[in-house]
Design a protein that fits this description.
This protein has 380 residues and is α+β, with helices and mostly antiparallel strands. It contains eleven helices and twelve strands. The structure holds 2-deoxy-2-fluoro-alpha-D-galactopyranose.
Length: 380
């Protein structure tokens, strides 16, 4: 983003800017709120937040993508008091204030390139860019874990979407050319090499244009079902059931819906660990393809969070030679990923476009990605 947007909005230069990325999740879906495992990577798309301090207790926020600017006294902020994109921005200020930090006032301009509702974490990118910029502007000394907490509070408690920690952790902690293994019980993370170029591979992101909306109740329903299954099984979280214990656990769950939900979480955790083993073993990354596809089938049939567009993207990519493909993110629309040989990139892209056209669906947006850098100050 050029300084012009800030100057145009507020008639003075910004003091500093932070960028935070969206993410894809390579594998480990809906596992975060079950204390399980995931393996995200940062997108080369994200949000930049430019900021400058004020001393009158007011926050003014504007967006390059949206004409509706907001001006609010910080003292008036309460969960849900500002709606739309600006809610994610002021939600971060609210969360810093709730954490005991003095917020003197500020002007913010945000500029985002992650498509909204695409399942690529546009909201986490927005929260994390603002959190990094505000922390830096006021010298709050937050650790990466603090930034993740503040960004999550904005999402969960201010905006009111009951997500886990996946998206904000990925946006803050991911690194270039790597995926990030996260254990959501300990919050330990480990960098996992993901040199796709070196292996002659591309990770295609297929934004199906079917817009997902996590706030519509289905996501919260899945969370409640997982919690109920764990309760019936007498464990704190479904993470506490492993592959060996799965058959016995499934026998004890009489409700077929809860049985399917539990099976997804237990098998998805096992697939995530296996994916990390393959990538850390420095073997051919193509070997994770079967795990990606198995993850999609499990999300489609057991967790029931896929949709027609995601299934079509995955099956077409697989039919055209992808090594693996799956929906990524929360589901109910959004994006899929496909692991393809770089020589097959055009063929897979054309085939998916063709299949969507034939099915009279909106044309998907498809691009190849390399894992990018997590949240950082723009001049560093
Ligand atoms: C969404 C949520 F925000 C994450 O916390 C995670 O649960 C994901 O869906 C599914 O893995 O992105």
């Amino acid at each position: 983003m050029s300084d012009d947007a800030f100057e145009a909005a507020y008639g003075r230069p910004a003091e500093l800017a932070w960028h935070a990325p969206g993410r894809v999740n390579i594998i480990g879906e809906h596992t975060d709120y079950n204390d399980g495992f995931a393996l995200p990577a940062a997108l080369p798309l994200g949000v930049t937040a430019q900021v400058a301090a004020r001393d009158d207790g007011v926050i003014r926020a504007s967006s390059v993508q949206d004409d509706d600017a907001v001006t609010v006294p910080i003292v008036d902020l309460a969960p849900g008091s500002v709606q739309g994109w600006a809610g994610y921005v002021v939600g971060v200020i609210w969360a810093f204030r709730e954490a005991g930090h003095h917020m003197p006032g500020l002007d913010i301009v945000v500029d985002g390139s992650v498509p909204i509702g695409s399942g690529l974490s546009s909201s986490a990118a927005l929260e994390c860019a603002v959190a990094g910029a505000v922390d830096d502007l006021f010298g709050l000394g937050s650790t990466p874990a603090d930034l993740i907490t503040v960004a999550r509070r904005a999402e969960n408690d201010y905006v009111g979407v009951p997500t886990g920690a996946l998206d904000q952790s990925a946006s803050v902690l991911c690194r270039e050319a790597e995926a990030l293994f996260i254990d959501f019980r300990s919050m330990d993370t480990r960098r996992v090499p993901l040199d796709l170029d070196g292996a002659g591979l591309r990770l295609l992101v297929i934004d199906t244009q079917a817009r997902h909306q996590l706030a519509d109740g289905e996501y919260a329903k899945r969370r409640a079902e997982c919690a109920r299954a764990a309760e019936l099984l007498g464990v704190p979280m479904l993470r506490d059931i492993d592959d060996d214990g799965l058959a016995g656990a499934l026998e004890r769950l009489t409700d077929p819906v809860l049985r399917r939900r539990a099976r997804h979480i237990v098998t998805e955790n096992a697939r995530t660990l296996q994916t990390v083993r393959v990538l850390e073993g420095q073997g051919d990354p193509r070997a994770i393809g079967a795990l990606l596809l198995a993850s999609h089938v499990s999300l489609r049939d057991d967790f029931e969070v896929s949709c027609r567009e995601l299934d079509l993207a995955v099956s077409t990519a697989m039919d055209t030679g992808a090594h693996g493909a799956r929906m990524t993110g929360g589901g109910f629309g959004g994006s899929a990923i496909a692991l393809v040989d770089d020589t097959d990139t055009d063929a897979v892209t054309d085939a998916v476009q063709g299949a969507f056209a034939e099915a009279e669906l909106t044309a998907p947006v498809i691009f190849a990605m390399q894992p990018a850098r997590g949240a950082h100050r723009c001049d560093e």
